[in-house]
Design brief:
- 74% of the residues lie in helices and 0% in strands.
- The protein is an all-alpha fold.
- The protein folds into two domains: 74 residues; 31 residues.
């Protein structure tokens, strides 16, 4: 006989045989006297869903941890990404250029005035 696999309504993926066996063992272990097979089956299905949900959470945590580890291992990539996000600013020589030209023109003006009055 082939074993039955249950399907989730959300994602049509079959539960593993190991998960089903685990859920059945737990359900039969907590079975109360006078409990019907149908009730035990429903309990086993609930336990199975809980196990599947737990596994999904653990996989998501593992993926997130892998992402963080990859970021930590490759700090140059993180630096490159931060440079890409910052707006471009003028280089330092361009910043002093207007002030340098202003200072130079004042020096030229003052020296012209001083030299023109002495001659």
């Amino acid at each position: 006989m082939a074993s039955k696999k249950t399907y989730s309504k959300k994602n049509k993926q079959a539960a593993s045989d190991k998960t089903i066996d685990e859920a059945n063992k737990i359900a039969s272990g907590i079975q109360k006297p006078g409990q019907t097979k149908e009730q035990t089956k429903l309990i086993a299905q609930g336990i199975q869903k809980g196990i599947e949900q737990y596994k999904k959470q653990q996989k998501a945590k593992a993926r997130e941890l892998d992402k963080q580890l990859k970021k930590a291992k490759n700090p140059t990539q993180a630096i490159d990404e931060s440079h890409d996000q910052q707006p471009l600013t003028p280089e330092s020589p361009v910043k002093w250029l207007p002030w340098g030209l202003l200072t130079l023109s004042w020096i030229g003006f003052i020296s012209y005035m001083v030299l023109s009055h002495t001659a």
